[in-house]
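Aim 2 progress update. The chain analyzed this quarter is reproduced below.
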Amino acid sequence: MDASLVQLITDLVMAEVNRGEGAPPSPQAAPSGEKARGGRRLLLVPAPAPFASMEGLLSSLREVPGIHWTAVRVAGVCEKRVDQALGAARWIDPPLLWDELIHSMEAVVLPVFRLEVLSRVAHLLSDVPASAAAVSGVMQGVPVLAGALEVDHLKRSSGRLPGPFLSLFHQHLRTVEGMGIQVLENEALVRRLGVKMAAPAGAAGKGRDVITVSDLEAAARAGQKVLQVVAGTIVTPLARDKAAQMGIEVIFT
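Predicted structure tokens:
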């Protein structure tokens, strides 16, 4: 996708978010007993991939205490095997409208970030459960964490892949990471979920912080070589390219 078109889509999405500023989200009803137990509610969207690609991470996530998992039913995913690895989850069908569900969660977890999902999220498409949950998480200011197993496999295979394919892959990866989606190796993802996560600054109801080309130009005029932004801030693709041209490093804090 042309970078200017990605920029336009991002601007339109942010305008829609800001239009709803000040409208409080609908109250969410936690499943019976969860509030009393003080549990943390996380959403799992498994992938229709070989189960071995998820099993190790799910088994490790089982050891993180105090989490009540809600899992989305996905065609091709065996609920029984997921429950055996992760522990019993509350299974639900993909909702027609994702925002209400996502807003009630502390985080969204995609145990395997499939290439087709990466591409869909980069283009803000919500036509499959994983991309719909991720895009809604970005919109709602809810942390989205994705397992890096398949992404890392593609990086390791870079020597055997065509240059145009790799260029597009890295462009999509930069785009989703610029949205604030964290693509983490299994150990890092488990550590990340070991602590209670706060929504990024400027989260749901107040719009997401966005770094644009204008912000980079202002930083350059001020002589800055490092621009620190809050985790979850959206860095538009054009801003990332401009930062590289200007020699400005964007660091998420």
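The chain has two domains: 31-193, 210-252. DSSP finds twelve helices and ten strands in the chain. These observations will guide the mutagenesis experiments scheduled for the next reporting period.
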